[in-house]
Amino acid sequence: APAPPPARHLFSDPAEVEALRWNLLAWYDQCKRDLPWRALAATEPDADRRGYAVWVSEVMLQQTQVATVINYYNRWMQKWPTLQALAQASLEEVNELWAGLGYYSRGKRLQEAARKVVSELAGQMPRTAEDLQKLLPGVGRYTAGAIASISYGQATGVVDGNVVRVLCRLRCIGADSSSPSVINQLWDMANVLVDRSRPGDFNQALMELGATVCVPKAPLCGECPVKQHCQAWRRKLFGKPPPVPDVEDCGVGDCPLCPPAMEPWDSSLGVTNFPWKAAKKPPRAMRTATCVLERRGCHGAPEYLIVQRPSSGLLAGLWEFPSLPLAQDLQEEKEREELADHLQAWMGRPVAAKDLQFIGEVIHIFSHIHQTYVVYSLHLDGDVTLDPALSLSRWVTEEEFHASAVSTAMKKV
After folding, report:
1. What is the pTM of this model?
2. What stretch or stretches form a coiled coil here (predicted)?
3. What are the distances in angstroms from CA 237 to CA 232, 240, 248, 375?
């Protein structure tokens, strides 16, 4: 069995824990940002509506910055102010509102879980992190802890990317912060630290600290309310480890939380030596041929053909211009031929590859895919009627296109 982490990595002094809680909450009360979901959580008397409001915000904030989320959140809560309202919406409506926010499966899973609460749980949200995670599809450990602590006052910790960074710096944790063993230790720390009387505020304060002060680069250590508890900050101040036993002594043995021997302290980096992550795999490269088919509409305005993606997988259920994945290093002539064959299936008539006009390339980076769209256009003369059996396609004006559930990548195209 691996050696347990030495006590100096942990929060084992009750007096220090209490002081850290007090300092962090006092700072949060004075410096917290005014965000719409916080206002709702603080003023909404109905527990289920409060839980729903926090839930929506936490799902939207996964992998997305606060500044981007605010407008989406306000529009969402205005359109679907309750779980019951969301449960009655169509997936098409959800996708349309979510379009541009990224990671589109989040909206779909949120609605699926809302429908389950209405149909199977009598419209009542689970009240504990354990039940939230067990009963609601798509709700993981972090989201469950956030909802339970902020909405229902459960004294449970949370660990997101911001909390990982703060805790790793507070305790000089230099092992791979993405590894399951380190993540479990960080959850244990968060559960020890969380303030029992104000768990929701404490968790938000810890996340707020990571988002605004203990940032990845150029952290504002001088403004940090808990710097006196931060081992990384003390090491930055004093340079080399002091002669008395300290966190560095762990590195002599097999401490599971110390930096690996091949990653020595870089004094020029200071506290940003932490956290440490193993190098990410580079995103895989993909190429896709996309054609903007244009016809003259009945009122004279141009119309464009969009088709719906499959209900599962990347960008599930969203609309796009007819597109076809390409093999790497395919010659342009062959690209045109394959795209023309693909378009024929939608048009119900032959399409000449030579008629496809090359427009250019659009690059869009997904979390794990470096996607290149090879963009063509084709202007169609006369009336073009789609096969009625192809219900997953439609002609739209430019205005209707932007109002549809289309991805940011397609808007670039």
Report:
1. 0.77
2. none
3. 9, 9, 15, 54
Q: What is the average pLDDT value for the chain, to the nearest integer?
A: 88
pLDDT confidence of residue 242? 44
Q: Model confidence at 243, in pLDDT bands (50, 70, 90)?
A: very low
* Percent of the chain residues topping a pLDDT of 90: 57
* Among candidate residues 131, 129, 108, 128, the one with its CA nearest the CA of residue 120: 131
Q: Which of 18, 44, 58, 337 is catalytic?
A: 58
3-state secondary structure labels for all residues of the chain? CCCCCCHHHCCCCHHHHHHHHHHHHHHHHHHCCCCHHHHHHHHCCCHHHHHHHHHHHHHHHCCCCHHHHHHHHHHHHHHCCCHHHHHHCCHHHHHHHHCCCCCCHHHHHHHHHHHHHHHHCCCCCCCCHHHHHHHCCCCCHHHHHHHHHHHHCCCCCCCCHHHHHHHHHHCCCCCECCCHHHHHHHHHHHHHHCCCCCHHHHHHHHHHHHHHCCCCCCCCHHHCCCHHHCHHHHHHHHCCCCCCCCHHHHHHCCCCCCCCCCCCCCCCCHHHHCCECCCCCCCEEEEEEEEEEEEECCCCCEEEEEEECCCCCCCCCCEECCEEEECCCCCHHHHHHHHHHHHHHHHCCCCCHHHCEEEEEEEEECCCEEEEEEEEEEECCCCCCCCCCCCCEEEECHHHHHHCCECHHHHHC
* Residues spanned by the domain of 392: 284-403
Verify whether residue 263 is a known catalytic residue.
no
State residue 135's pLDDT score: 95
What pLDDT score does 7 carry? 67
Find out whether 62 and 46 touch, Cβ atoms under 8 Å: no
Is 219 in the same domain as 294?
no
Q: Which of 238, 273, 308 is the last residue of a domain?
A: 238
pLDDT band at 248 (very low <50, low <70, confident <90, very high): very low
Is residue 217 one of the residues assigned to a domain?
A: yes
Q: Are residues 44 and 113 in the same domain?
A: yes
What per-residue confidence (pLDDT) applies to 301? 85
Residue 22 has pLDDT above 80, yes or no: yes
For strands 369-379 and 284-296, give the pairing: parallel
